Amino acid sequence: MAVLAIHHLPDPVLRRKAKRVPAIDGSIQRLIDDMVETMQQSNGVGLAAPQVGVSLRVVVLQMPEGEPIALINPEVVKRSGEREVAEACLSVPGYAGEIKRSVSIVVKGYDRQGKAIRIRATEIMAQALEHELDHLNGALYVDHIESQDKLHEIEPESESEVR
Predict the structure, then answer these.
(1) Is 54 part of any domain?
(2) Which of 3, 40, 104, 124, by CA, is between 20 and 30 Å from 78?
(3) What is the pLDDT of residue 159?
(4) Residue 128 has pLDDT above 90, yes or no
(5) What strands lie across the sheet with 92-101, from one edge to the other?
């Protein structure tokens, strides 16, 4: 496993719509392992492949006290509710913002073994899923900020928001 370089705005890879993974092979398994290690080393909750320069529809997530989850070719199938949340992003260091996210979300995709899975999530997991799936579509949380006064600089050691 290896810690990969995280790409930052304005890197164009962050603005491209990621391609579907055609087959889950050894290269995808290595990518998932490297992404998990990178996410953990960066103290992130999630990481999308475009953030490490790979334009494929792969995300990894890890909730506090939980095991890492990999999702391949994920799609949102249902959203409900709306709430305002604080977010930050490993690809936009030094900033956090207040945006609107769903209260609950249902996502379908494939796990690292290629098994179809469906995740129903609320709260921070729903927020993290929406955040990472945005990356797969070339969007970042800053695109959802309604006004400049909802974006603020943060100290590196105080980055406690979802990222």
Answers:
(1) yes
(2) 40
(3) 45
(4) yes
(5) 83-89, 92-101, 151-153
The H or E element containing residue 26 is helix 26-41
Catalytically annotated residue among 98, 130, 132, 159: 132
Distance CA 24, CA 126 (A): 25
| 130 classed as catalytic | no
Q: 124 in a domain, yes or no?
A: yes
pTM value is: 0.93
- Scan for tokens 């290269």, then name that residue: 27
Mean pLDDT across the stretch 115-133? 97
Task: Report if residue 5 sits inside a domain.
Answer: no
Here the CATH number for the domain that contains residue 132 is: 3.90.45.10
Looking up tokens 């790409």 gives 7
Lowest mean pLDDT, pick from 67-71, 79-83, 135-139, 159-163 = 159-163
Question: Can you say whether the dihedral through the CA atoms of 62, 124, 17, 75 is positive or negative?
Answer: positive
Helix (H, G, I), strand (E, B) or coil at 24: coil
6 in a domain, yes or no?
A: no
Q: Return the structure tokens found at 152.
A: 């603020």
